[in-house]
Design a protein that fits this description.
Layout (H helix, E strand, L loop, with lengths): L1 E8 L3 E5 L9 E6 L1 H4 L5 H8 L4 E6 L3 E3 L2 E3 L3 E7 L4 E8 L6 H12 L4 E8 L6 H11 L5 E6 L11 E3 L2 E3 L2 E8 L3 E8 L3 E13 L2 E5 L2 E2 H9 L15 E4 L8 E3 L1 E5 L4 E4 L8 E6 L2 H15 L6 E7 H7 L3 H11 L5 E7 L1 E4 L8 E3 L3 E8 L1
Parallel strand pairs: 3-4, 9-10, 23-24
Antiparallel strand pairs: 1-2, 1-7, 3-7, 4-11, 5-6, 5-24, 8-13, 9-13, 10-25, 11-12, 14-27, 15-16, 15-22, 16-17, 16-21, 18-19, 18-22, 20-21, 23-27, 25-26
Helix pairs in contact: 3-4, 6-8
């Protein structure tokens, strides 16, 4: 397995980290700013035209990651040549959250095979319910097949996200890549670094990923009281104070959920994943040091195998909290990953990965999620 990193910028165009020269890749994985994925003659199509035999896929971002650096208004890519692993990529349209489960199941069924080892999912970031999307995949995949990935971003605008497979780059699309063969080593890790505070509030009214009431009070009104002056910047400022979803009133830990949209008329909050009635929610906060430590822990879990390609998916909320220290979490990851690993990734609207130490995949928010791929 050989991996080359590449980056496109407005000043230099495409540059490749290829000291021994370019090769014909089997797979190109890219992450780019929303504006750079739209043009018909844009950098992604230029890359696909240059390497027509490669499976080319990717998504829009809230920041592009290459090594231990983050950039905006660029496109980053990993060009991968496998020695024995086979890949197949498929895509499906998702008109709205209610179609997420069916899309996940349909994509999984197209990829399903006895030698399927892993699936990487790059999803539309605003029109899906990440929880049910993953449930659809889990229902159709064979036991033992792992699943990771992320939800596309659009900066802090929350306007429109894109995913791409080949020449088709559009919104409302989920792309899934299947990896086949016994020689592929896959590892993953996901950690947050956030801490819960305040009372546990019962979810008394919700529908899928839309939360209407907490403790029989309008969810948006209650949430605004916590945010104070920051409420004027919703939904973006909601990234600074996610909610912890708890299975019951005494559960010590739970999944983190980030706000994607607010509805003033319904006084509701829309999240990237389900907020089931009868469960509990609690506010969360963090500091910069906590996020950096969480990123290091995720890298430690993912680096159990010598990963030749490391795919980093970190939540846009983490970037907002870290501010000018954002690259410190990437530096922490680099210190833990094996020497020679190529790291590419993006800041996302949601992360897809099994919790560290487990195999059943979940939707996360506000985490650093790392997938490492290598051939043995």
């Amino acid at each position: 397995m050989k991996v080359i990193a590449a980056q496109w910028t407005t000043t230099r165009g495409w540059t490749f980290d290829a000291p021994e020269g370019l090769f014909e890749p089997d797979w190109i994985l890219y992450f780019g700013a929303t504006a750079r994925l739209e043009p018909a003659n844009g950098p992604v199509r230029e890359l696909c035209t240059r390497f027509p035999k490669a499976v080319c896929c990717g998504c829009s971002t809230s920041g592009e990651i290459l090594g231990d650096h983050v950039s905006d208004d660029s496109v980053v890519a990993a060009l991968v040549k496998f020695s024995g692993t086979k890949i197949k990529a498929v895509a499906a349209q998702v008109a709205g959250p209610e179609h997420s489960s069916a899309a996940g199941k349909a994509l999984a069924q197209q990829l399903r095979a006895d030698d399927l080892r892993h699936v990487l999912v790059l999803s539309e970031g605003l029109k899906v319910n990440g929880t049910t999307l993953i449930a659809g995949f889990r229902e159709a995949l064979l036991p033992g097949v792992t699943l990771t990935g992320g939800l596309a971003g659009d900066g802090t605008r929350f306007g429109q996200t894109f995913t791409g497979l080949g020449e088709k780059i559009c919104s409302g699309q989920v792309v899934a890549v299947g990896f086949y063969g016994k020689n592929l080593a896959v590892n993953y890790g996901t950690e947050g670094g956030w801490e819960a505070f305040g009372p546990r509030r019962l979810i008394t009214k919700s529908q899928g990923n839309v939360l209407f009431e907490l403790d029989n009070q309008p969810a948006l009104d209650l949430y605004k009281k916590y945010l104070g002056e920051r409420a004027a910047g919703l939904p973006a400022t909601g990234l600074l104070f996610p909610l912890q979803l708890l299975a019951n009133s005494s559960a010590p830990n739970g999944l983190v959920r980030t706000i994607l949209a607010v509805d003033e008329q319904q006084q509701s909050l829309t999240f990237a994943g389900d907020m089931p009635e009868g469960q509990y929610a609690r506010l969360m906060k963090t500091g910069q040091d906590g996020l950096v430590h969480g990123a290091s822990q995720a890298a430690g879990a993912a680096a159990a195998a010598a990963g030749q390609l490391a795919i980093l998916v970190s939540c846009v909320g983490r970037r907002l909290v870290l501010g000018q220290r954002v690259e410190e979490e990437l530096e922490a990851v680099k210190k833990v990953l094996p020497a020679g690993s190529v790291a590419v990734g993006f800041y996302s609207y949601g992360e897809i990965c099994p919790p560290t130490g487990l195999r059943q995949c979940e939707l996360h928010n506000q985490t650093m999620t790392i997938t490492t791929l290598a051939e043995t």
